[in-house]
Design goal:
By secondary structure, the chain is an alpha+beta fold. It contains nine helices and eight strands. Strand 4 (55-61) and strand 5 form a beta hairpin. Helix 4 packs across helix 5 and helix 8 packs across helix 9. The longest helix has 25 residues, at 117-141. The protein is globular, with a radius of gyration of 17 Å. The chain starts with a helix and ends with a helix.
Length: 188
């Protein structure tokens, strides 16, 4: 349980009581590559912390799916609306690589928030962080693909380095061929 504690301590000191309680509630799982963590149409009942690997969030429209977000080690992952409001998810979350994940249920998450002030603070900091991150990512997607690629390289190098090319192209909203052309131009 060292990894989750190290990640949470980045945002706030943790009391011994909180650490002990979290230890009873959190569990470590391994997800194989291409394992579906959440399927569109299900209700998201878990929050995940990635220790190792990469998860992709896909929006599915009819027969087409497109990557809306890629998450790597240190990221907290959930289908936000489904998790917070316990409604059907419009997203699918898939392990892009083999993953080591730490999982906590929504019920335990809410209970920890209710019981521990430090967890309330952490929850708010992470909510704010991911809200801002999402808005910036959406704005960057509207830029030319070369600029979006440069933004990803500078701010999310693990994604550029480790994501399958098809998944990265989907995140960028371009074809695989266009992404190869961008990469080739950058190396020239």
């Amino acid at each position: 349980m060292d990894y989750p504690l190290s990640q949470l301590r980045k945002y706030h000191e943790l009391s011994a009581a909180f650490v002990a309680d979290l230890g009873k509630r959190i569990r470590r799982i391994e997800a194989a590559r291409n394992n579906t963590i959440l399927l569109k149409g299900d209700i998201c009942r878990n929050l995940y912390l990635i220790e190792k690997g990469m998860l992709a969030c896909y929006d599915v429209e009819g027969p087409k799916k497109y990557c809306s977000w890629l998450m790597t080690a240190g990221d907290f992952v959930t289908a936000v609306d489904s998790f917070n409001n316990q409604v059907i998810s419009t997203e699918t979350i898939v392990a892009v690589t083999e993953c080591v994940l730490w999982v906590i249920t929504r019920e335990d998450f809410e209970e920890l928030t209710r019981l521990y002030r430090e967890f309330q603070v952490i929850r708010q900091v992470l909510t704010d962080k991911y809200h801002i991150q999402s808005r910036v990512m959406d704005a960057k997607r509207k830029r030319p693909p070369e600029q979006f690629y440069e933004y990803l390289e500078a701010n999310y190098p693990a994604i550029v380095r480790e994501a399958p090319i098809t998944t990265l192209a989907s995140l960028m909203g371009i074809t695989r061929t266009t992404l190869y052309e961008i990469i080739h131009r950058k190396r020239s």
